[in-house]
Automatic annotation (TrEMBL):
Protein name stated in the entry: NOT2/NOT3/NOT5 C-terminal domain-containing protein
PANTHER family in the cross-refs: CCR4 NOT-RELATED (PTHR23326)
Gene Ontology annotations of biological process type: regulation of DNA-templated transcription
Keyword terms, alphabetized: Transcription, Transcription regulation
Family: Belongs to the CNOT2/3/5 family.
One GO cellular component, as annotated: CCR4-NOT core complex
A Pfam cross-reference name: NOT2_3_5_C
Domain NOT2/NOT3/NOT5 C-terminal: 1-62
Length: 70
C-alpha cells in the first residue's frame, strides 16, 4: 500500500509520517524503505525496513508506471 519506487535510490519508499514540507516538485519528511541487509559479524542477509528522517523526496525521481518484461 502506497509504496513508490524511487529511480535514483532503486528502492521502494513509503511515508513514515506526514511530510513536514510539500511543494509541487518535492516533499520532505520521514520515510521507510526496503534495504538488503548484510550483517558482517555472522554473515546474515535479508531484506529489512530502514527509516530516513528529513528526506527530500523529489517527485521526478518516482517511477510512474510498472514495466513488464517481454
Amino acid at each position: 500500500q502506497s509504496w513508490r519506487f524511487h529511480k535514483q535510490h532503486n528502492a521502494w519508499f513509503q511515508r513514515f509520517t506526514e511530510p513536514q514540507i510539500t511543494s509541487e516538485e518535492y516533499e520532505q519528511g520521514a520515510y521507510v524503505y526496503f534495504d538488503y541487509n548484510i550483517v558482517h559479524d555472522d554473515l546474515q542477509t535479508g531484506w529489512c525496513y530502514r527509516r530516513k528522517e528529513n528526506f527530500t523526496f523529489r517527485y521526478d525521481a518516482l517511477e510512474d508506471e510498472l514495466r513488464t518484461q517481454s
